[in-house]
Amino acid sequence: MAVHPIDYRYGSEEMRRIWDEKNKLQKLLDVEAALARAHARVGNIPEESARVISERANTNWVKLERVKEIEAEIHHDIMAVVKALSEVCGEHGKYVHLGATSNDIIDTANALLIKESLDIVLRDLEELRSILKNLAREHKYTVCIGRTHGQHAVPTTYGMKFAIWLDEIQRHIDRIEQAKERLLVGQMSGAVGTMASFGEKGLEIQRLVMEDLGLKPVRISNQIIQRDVYAELIMILALIASTLDKIALEIRNLQRTEILEVSEPFGKKQVGSSTMPHKRNPIRSEKVSGLARVLYSNVIPALLNNPLWHERDLTNSSVERVILPESFILLDEMLKSMKKVLSGLEFFPENIERNLYMTHNLVMAEPLMLKLTEKGMGRQEAHELVRQIAMRAFYEKRDLIEVAKESEEVRRFLSDEDLESLKPENYIGLAPQIVENIIAHIEEKEQK
After folding, report:
1. From the DSSP assignment, how many helices (H) and strands (E) are in the chain?
2. Measured between alpha carbons, how far is 188 from 109 in angstroms, rounded to an integer?
3. Is the torsion defined by CA of 51, 57, 62, 63 positive or negative?
4. Per-residue pLDDT of the chain (448 residues; tens, 9 = 90+)
C-alpha cells in the first residue's frame, strides 16, 4: 500500500526506480560483490569464491522478501543482506562481508544511488538550461516593466528575466560537477575506520573496491563517511529547489489576472476549478513552490546528522532513509514540471505593453532626471524637481512627460525633442548585450 506521494504521485518512474527497495538492495549487493573481488585480487580469498559471490550478488538470487524475513528475526538490516547472500553462495558464503562493517556497505551503496540520481538531475538542468537560453535569445528585445517592492520601477526585458534564471541554472550545474569529487566517495575501512579488520592490505582493498564501482575512496573515515558530505548534497538540492521556486513565483505573479503578461500552458481539456469553469490556475508553478518547502526543510536534519556521538551513532540512519529519496524524487518532479511550464510559456504582448504604460510614463522619472543632469542641472536638484513633477502627475493622473513640459525649470534645460525621446522602449540600457553575454557564456560551458 502506497502512503507517501513519492510512491505514486511525484517524480519520474526513472528516479523512483533508483530509490526503490529492490534497487537499493542491488546496490548493497554490488558493494559486497566488489569487496569479494578485491579480497580475491589481494589473495585473501579464493578467486572461485569471489566469482560465485559476484554471480549471485543480485536480486534474482537474493530475494528482497528473504532479506526482510531475516531482518524481522535479527533486527539488523545489513546483516540480513549478508546472511541472505551467504545462503545462496553455499560454501563460498563464508567469505561474504569479510572485514567490513555495515556502513562500509551502506555508505558506498548510497554513493552509487546518489551518482545515478545526480545524473538525472544534471540531465534535467541541462535541458532546462537549453529552454531558458532559447527564451532569453528570443525575448532579448521584449521590453516590459521592471518591478521592485512589487511596484513599477524602470523598463527591463523578458530576455533579462530569462538570462538571470539561465545563469543561475548554470551555477547549479557547476556546483554539482564541482561537488562530485566530495559526494561520490565510498569507504571500506571497517569498524571506527582504522582498517584493522583488513590488515595491512586495507588501503589497497578500499582502492580496488572503489575503482571497481566507479567511485573515489574516502580519504578518512570513522566508520561512516562524514555527514557534512550529505549535508552539502541536500543543500545543493535545496538551492536548486530555491531557483525553481523563484521562477515559479515570478510566473505565478505575472499570470495574475491584473497583470497577465505570461501564463503557464493550459491544456485544451484541463480543468482549473471544480466550481469555477473559467479558472486557469498556475498549478504546476504552485506545485513547484509548494514542494520547494519540503526540500528546504530537509536541510536542517541533514545538518543535524553531522554531529554524532564519538565515532558514530545511528541517529542519522533513519533520517537519511527519508531525506535522500524524498529530496531527489521531489526535485525530479519540480524540474520536470518547470521544463513543461517554460517550454510552453504563453505570452500576452498586449498586456506587456499595457503594463509598461500603465503609470502614464511615471517610470520615465529616472531618465528624465538623468537627462536634466546631462544638460547641466545638478543631480540633487534634478532629483527633487522630478520628484515633485512625478507626484503631481500621479495625483492628477496625467502623463509625466506632459507635466514636465509645463515646468519652466525643465524647459530651461530640455527641448520638446529631448522630452519626447523619453520612452520606455528607449530605456533598456545594455539589456540585449548583457543577455547576449550570458548566452555566449552558457554556450562556452556547453562546449566543454
Report:
1. 18, 6
2. 11
3. negative
4. 888 999 889 999 999 999 999 999 999 999 999 999 999 999 999 999 999 999 999 999 999 999 999 999 999 999 999 999 999 999 999 999 999 999 999 999 999 999 999 999 999 999 999 999 999 999 999 999 999 999 999 999 999 999 999 999 999 999 999 999 999 999 999 999 999 999 999 999 999 999 999 999 999 999 999 999 999 999 999 999 999 999 999 999 999 999 999 999 988 888 887 888 888 999 999 999 999 999 999 999 999 999 999 999 999 999 999 999 999 999 999 999 999 999 999 999 999 999 999 999 999 999 999 999 999 999 999 999 999 999 999 999 999 999 999 999 999 999 999 999 999 999 999 999 999 999 999 999 998 7
> Can you tell me which residue has the cell 540531465?
123
Asked if 261 and 355 count as a contact pair (C-beta separation under 8 A), the reply is: yes
pTM of the model: 0.94
Hey, how many other C-beta atoms are within 10 angstroms of the C-beta on 171? Answer: 12
Taking alpha carbons only, the member of 380, 382, 400 closest to residue 390 is 400
Measured between alpha carbons, how far is 329 from 228 in angstroms, rounded to an integer? 21
The catalytic residue positions are 149, 273
Q: Where are the alpha helices (DSSP H) in 226-314?
A: 228-254, 283-304
Type and span of the H or E element at 328 = helix 315-343
Q: Which residues have a Cβ under 8 Å from the Cβ of 113 and sit 6 or more positions away? A: 18, 19, 23, 24, 27, 324
* Gap between the Cα atoms of 153 and 143, Å rounded: 13
**Is-contact 106 186, C-beta < 8 A?**
no
Angstrom distance (rounded) from CA 324 to CA 14: 16
* φ and ψ at residue 278, rounded to 5 degrees: -85, -10
Using left for φ > 0, alpha for ψ between -120 and 50, and beta otherwise, residue 181 falls in alpha
The C-alpha cell that represents 169 in the structure block: 541554472
